[in-house]
């Protein structure tokens, strides 16, 4: 049966006290508490640095078996090399998160492309060819030129998910291209009607047999975390969530 995972882009925010974290909770215990309320988190610092194995082991210790870590791909891949000539760095990056995969806690790996990277199907096809099929991957395109059937076809051929990103300036088309769906809800706030629409769309994907990963933007307040908790309550999530 398809599962639903909901969380935020990060968890280490003292400003979430006392509404989400207890006022006296030590920061080193944030992830443990977070994982009692939500069943996934999108890790963004992997965009700028390769994660250490000791850090991974701490994550594994602090989270239950059903928990999933979504990982943002390193900027060397997406922003510095811009998908070109990454044959050596991609395996190096993936090796750092292999301990998560080994115990079933690796969620999707997000490849977020620069806003000024326009559609280049040959480039995308070449990159997808070096990406192991065992890696659950999702692409966030931030230039509208990518929003075309030819892009969706390439993603489908590799079972790679289109990241459906909702922002105040650009919204990705709602297209399923893989066996799972990846949402990034980036607006600072959502109306009740907008949240009901999210719930309906997520339920449709679950009914179609697709796992769903949904991440809300972190802010100075825990509003995104509360939205994620609400969605999990309304839709139902992975076992134990």
Task: Report on this structure.
This protein is of the alpha/beta class. The protein has one domain (4-235): TIM Barrel. It contains 9 helices and 8 strands. It has helices at residues 30-37, 53-62, 75-80, 89-96, 98-102, 121-130, 149-157, 192-207, 223-235; strands at residues 4-8, 40-43, 68-72, 106-112, 137-140, 161-166, 180-185, 211-216. It has an 8-stranded parallel β-sheet with strand order 1-8-7-6-5-4-3-2.
List keywords for this structure.
TIM Barrel
- The number of helical runs is 9
Distance between the termini: 15 Å
Radius of gyration: 17 Å
Mean pLDDT: 95
Task: Count structural domains.
Answer: 1
Global outline: globular
Indicate the structural class: alpha/beta
Strand order of the largest sheet: 1-8-7-6-5-4-3-2
Indicate the percent of residues in helices: 25-40%
CATH homologous group name: Protein of unknown function UPF0759
Percent strand equals 15-25%
Q: How is the CATH topology named?
A: TIM Barrel
- Count every beta strand, where a strand is a DSSP E run of 2 or more residues: 8
Q: Which regions are unreliable across 5 or more consecutive residues at pLDDT < 50? A: none
Instruction: Give a short account of the largest sheet.
Output: 8 strands, parallel
Task: Please give the structural blueprint.
Layout: E1 4-8, H1 30-37, E2 40-43, H2 53-62, E3 68-72, H3 75-80, H4 89-96, H5 98-102, E4 106-112, H6 121-130, E5 137-140, H7 149-157, E6 161-166, E7 180-185, H8 192-207, E8 211-216, H9 223-235
Parallel strand pairs: 1-8, 2-3, 3-4, 4-5, 5-6, 6-7, 7-8
């Amino acid at each position: 049966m398809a599962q639903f995972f909901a969380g935020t882009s990060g968890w280490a925010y003292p400003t979430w006290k006392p509404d989400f974290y207890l006022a006296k909770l030590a920061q080193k215990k944030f992830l443990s508490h977070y994982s009692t309320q939500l069943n996934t988190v999108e890790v963004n610092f992997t965009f700028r640095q390769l994660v250490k194995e000791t850090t991974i082991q701490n994550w594994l210790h602090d989270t239950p078996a059903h928990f999933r870590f979504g990982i943002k791909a390193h900027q060397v891949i997406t922003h510095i090399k811009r998908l070109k000539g990454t044959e050596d760095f991609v395996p190096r990056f993936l090796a750092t998160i292999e301990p998560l995969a080994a115990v079933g806690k690796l969620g999707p790996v997000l490849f977020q492309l620069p806003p000024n990277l326009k559609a280049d199907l040959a480039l995308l096809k070449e990159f997808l060819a070096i990406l192991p099929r065992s890696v659950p991957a999702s692409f966030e395109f931030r230039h509208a030129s990518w929003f075309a059937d030819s892009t969706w076809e390439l993603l489908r051929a590799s079972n790679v998910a289109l990241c459906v990103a909702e922002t105040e300036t650009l919204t990705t088309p709602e297209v399923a291209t893989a066996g799972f769906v990846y949402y990034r809800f980036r607006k600072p706030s959502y109306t009740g009607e907008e949240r009901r629409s999210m719930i309906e769309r997520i339920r449709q994907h679950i009914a179609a047999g697709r796992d769903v990963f949904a991440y809300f933007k972190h802010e100075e307040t825990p509003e995104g975390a509360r939205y994620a908790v609400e969605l999990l309550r309304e839709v139902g999530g992975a076992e134990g969530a």
